[in-house]
Prior knowledge:
Layout: E1 10-15, H1 22-39, E2 45-47, H2 56-68, E3 73-78, H3 84-93, E4 98-103, H4 118-131, E5 143-144, H5 146-166, E6 169-175, H6 189-193, E7 197-202, H7 203-212, H8 219-230, H9 240-257, E8 263-267, H10 274-278, H11 283-291, E9 296-297, H12 302-315, E10 319-326, H13 330-336, E11 348-353, E12 366-369, H14 371-374, E13 383-389, E14 393-402, E15 408-417, E16 427-432, H15 436-445, E17 452-456, H16 461-470, E18 478-480
Parallel strand pairs: 1-2, 1-3, 3-4, 4-5, 6-7, 6-8, 8-9, 13-16, 15-18
Antiparallel strand pairs: 10-11, 10-17, 11-16, 12-13, 14-15, 14-17, 15-16
Amino acid sequence: MLNNMPQIKIGIVAVSRDCFPESLSVTRREALVKAYTEKYDASEIYECPVCIVESEIHMVQALEDIKAAGCNALAVYLGNFGPEISETLLAKHFEGPKMFLAAAEESGDDLVQGRGDAYCGMLNASYNLKLRNVKAYIPEYPVGNAEECADMIHDFVPVAKAVYALNNLKIISFGPRPLNFLACNAPIQQLYNLGVEIEENSELDLFEAFNKHAGDERIPALAEEMAAELGAGNKKPEILPKLAQYELTLKDWVEEHRGYRKFVAIAGKCWPAFQTQFGFVPCYVNGRLAAQGIPVSCEVDIYGALSEYIGAVVSNDTVTLLDINNTVPNDMYASDIKGKFNYTQKDTFMGFHCGNTAAGKLSSCTMKYQMIMARSLPEEVTQGTLEGDLVPGDITFYRLQSTSDNKLRAYIAHGEILPVATRSFGSIGIFAIPEMGRFYRHVLIEKNFPHHGAVAFGHYGKALFEVFKYIGVPVDEIGYNQPAGVRYPTENPWG
């Protein structure tokens, strides 16, 4: 089975300006590494031992060393002022995500021979990075003691993982999009700009591959696995062999088509002809693959698949893709939310999809037929959707999108799923996001985002924001739910 989540190893390279004591960089690097290994996973970092970089020759030596050690990310550590040319050349020639950080001074009793001036050196480093057109992650306050710098590097880990993953990602799509889903249509140019490969296929290709898997000897065991996962919620046991056949089809397709790419996400087709030809809906399989680290977006939503994958890497957890779907009715808000949770009615909404959320992210789940589709089709061909209320808890609602005129935009909002029964159908939850009403109008609508939003189960806005910045989304194009009293540019100041 494809290992679809990246592992990161950050090479820590200390640098020194030759008119400063090199010993400052040595001892400060050693203290930083010691602090990191005492608090975090030591396998995430590598201490470059061959040299302290003072010159271009040292830069080449350090670069070769961290490559040989298998590092796929870089932390340039200014133990003192630092050599602005050599340190930024190191970043330029390293193929992978990189960060810069700097050492604070240790003691008021040692500010003559022991003063490093890295606070000053970070300014020259940033100037030189811009001169060389090199992207690098710089923490909010990039100067600290050993423990603080260890925390900064740890904050870089999910950012580095996501950036590295995108440079090694292929999105496999099966289309075309359903009619009336222009909202999920976007130019693929930005995928290439981000370093992502795209393989677009016809659903007829998928149907052919599915039919070739008829009678696959692996189907019975996988169907039993599905039944065990569903437990008492297995209300449609007759459909499990077909769903198992479909899951095997997708997994084999991934293995056969990933090519030189390490990681894969899928933008899948699910209607209108899918049900009548395949004889089921793929929702449950989509959720199962997401739980296995292979996000599958609905309705051939390519940027939805991209967003899901970024969130899965950052959170190291299963994600889902939902419609920003419907309001919470007045009577339901009054009886179940008002006075119990500190949210206005406009802060709340329901996130829904037909049944694509993984079983582990539902409070309870039942295998059913897809009610919306069954309004116009025989019920027996709409089976395969997993229904249940989403688990309550913290969430991040987010999306990365290309506009129709090929510009990158994104949004991020922290909130929670409330422990309130939805009384509805599908994979669904009652979401609460502070100031959601204004965010909905002045980010989601104003910036022309589609109705699909990715959901990570936890608060990951800090890392996602840095990922979006690093990959080139303009900061003023990263929307978020601004607090009360902070006006959106398009918001009427008179209300």
